[in-house]
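hey all, quick one before standup. I had two proteins in the batch that finished overnight and I want to keep them in one place so we stop losing track of which output belongs to which input. First protein below, input sequence then structure tokens straight from the run.
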Amino acid sequence: MGEDGRQEADRYEQEGREVGEMESVQERMERLGTKEKIATFMQKEKQPYEFKRKYAQIRAEEFASECDGRGLNYHVSVGGLDSIVLYLFLHEICHINAPGVSASTLEDKSIQRVHKALGIINVPPLKREDGTYWTKPRVIQEFGFPVISKEVAGKIELLQNPTEKNKTVRHAIITGETGAYGGWQKNSKMQLKQKWLKLFGGYENENEGCDYEKPDFKVSSKCCYYLKEKNCDDWGKEHNSVPYLGLMASEGGRRARSLRMNGCNYFGASTIRSAPFAIFHRQDILQLALEMDTLWKGGLKEKYHEKLLKENCLSNSFKMPDSIIPEIYGTIEKKPDGTLYTTKAQRTGCSMCGFGIHIEKRPHRFDLLHENNPKEWDYLMFHMCKDENGNDYGWAKVLEYIGVGWDPTTIGENCKGQMSLEDFID
């Protein structure tokens, strides 16, 4: 479960306090004027590209100025295309000299190459108690598979790990019924959608009198935490630095609610961050990517190459990429109606991540991995974990369980892995 989700679960788990001491979700939203804030933010999302571009610049510069006044440093959390564009936008348009930080080794090789060309700082995964680093297979073996979405995986993880403390939130996940903090709702958004309840709700059959199924594998949202979130957060603390993030509310989920409630720049008690592209849509980020790529091809590539060579951050043999758009995305092209799109991957991430796989058309990310790296595909599908009897298994088992096709020979011959309206509403 992401940070927002963990905080919400924690709040639900504090139901032992007396009702009179507690402010409900609805009361708090009314006091903070949340509905009005969201409505205002969504109006900005409807504005034309030039407005959004200028708005992003203003917010980014305001964040840097406020951090300077507070004695804080700032950096860019860099991953895929969106944050690569953000890094260049801050440096070349806003003239904000913020270092880029990334758990780069998790990304596709073509993304890693662009990171290297930009001088992005690579932060290693967290260390285990035995002194070795966490790896993708180790995290999944110990905690579970990252599947469906961060929010849903976090809820399933709670169901798989019941405690007296999380009893209230587990009840809300199954029934939608909340306690005092949730305002005694009957159909809250804490409840899993029926599709996922049917497959993962069986852990509460005895408690709730239901008849759902449960798998023989674990599900978790902890991969990001151990492999990139905590280590990058630790880097920030060590350097007294707070992040610029390439997040957009249009991507949906808990992040969307948080961005629309709190705006592009947020200075909270425990969290400080800037998301200059918060009001962007996909078309806006692709348009800006083309602009940054034009700068790259117009002399920026040579500028970065010379700078990084002087700083001994590159070897003389390193070949700078011709485009800041990593090869995994293909190129950015325009449809007859003017819509921009990437010719290959639309979104990227860790090669073994399953978040969102259920809404991808085939060939989906694992099908493409089979095409580009069949050896890694075979490992992820069949050998990355061991069951209690010591037998190998992997993503094939998980995908089969949630109804997503994985066999490359069946592409086009079945509807598994195809999107439906229900799938978009996790």
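OK second protein, same deal, sequence then tokens:
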Amino acid sequence: MLLEFEVENFRSFADPMTLSLIASSDRSHGDHLIGMEGSRDRVVRSASVYGANASGKSNLIMALGIVQTIVLRSHLAQLGEHLPFFPFKFAGPGEMTSTRYRLVFLAEGVEYEYSLRHNAEMVLEESLYHYPKNRRAIIFERVCGQELRAPQDDGSLREIASRTIPNALLLSKAVQDNLAIVIPAFRWFQERLMVILNINSMAVEERALARMQQDSRFRDFLLKALSMADLGIVDVRGKVVPMDQEELDRMPPEIQEQMRGMVNGKIEQWRRLEIKTVHQIADRDEGNIQVEMDFHGEESLGTQKAFAIMALILEAMETGRVLVMDEMDLRLHPLIARFLVEMMNDPEQNRGNAQFLFTTHDTDLITLDLFRRDQIWFVDKDAGGRSRLYSLSDFRVRKDLRVQKAYEIGRFGAIPFVRGGKVVE
């Protein structure tokens, strides 16, 4: 599970900003919290992030996706190859020369803290700590130009560090050498963190289809969710079809781009899905009949989105993953969006203690009936183009406050100030 994420000098996040999923003193919705063995701290099951267009919400999700990709793929780096580096654009000369990430997470029952600072050319600082007995212990501290600090090392980590090129992560290289002490942290990035930047990616749909074919229980739950959301779908069938170059060349460039998606740092090969949905309708003469429809050609974009996100949430709840998603509500009816959030917040359904972090514009969800104050976050951008991240917990809010109304009139910031008047005169 994810406890904290801090980012600095990534796109619009020029200054250090921390998203904390550790529960505050708020006593409402106690069932929205997950306990941690051996700790008084608890974490929230879900968190929503609000803000105006271009405020930086997507940059927060992208930052998590970028650091995950670096960790998972750094061992493949070639000498001189650039790291993904997206600094704040509006800094003065010599300012904002490196990006920093820090994550605190629970892996295999132990708390870990991983930090990384880098520029385009090299890793400047990298550290990994753990708390095996609720006391902080160094696994390694790596600073460019200084000797590796690793008090628990028997010499193996130092030997790996001596072979690690400047633009590669020691964490990733050590895992390739099967160094046991770092494997749980790496596996958290690999198996527990699921960052979805493009929900309509074919990779997401293919993942859902494969799970339905392999796991009858998962299939039943997904079909039940689709039915409860009133989408009229009683069955889903499909297969993966490889694409040849001639078929690919006939597709418009924008469609080709839509087919490129990224899940956990992996880009799918060129192929297409043939998915059919089955609807049951009442016929005046024949009673209930079933009709097959083409998923991509005949179902709405909203239905396609609902299918993908429901599959991801069910998978996350089953495996205890941290599901991070940009624009969760896009193309979804507000009642369906609420239905999905309620699934994740419900400990009877979310028995795997998954977490759901998402950005949204759906103000119908900003209610204390659905969320605790520490589950509602905002991103606002100042006149200098710098994004600021803060929580509703930072405000004194009455329990009976209509938070949606207060947000819409600007009490918490993070809304667009649209000037009235005529564009065309």
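Flagging for whoever picks this up: Confidence is low (pLDDT under 50) at residues 261-268. The chain is about 30% helix and 25% strand.
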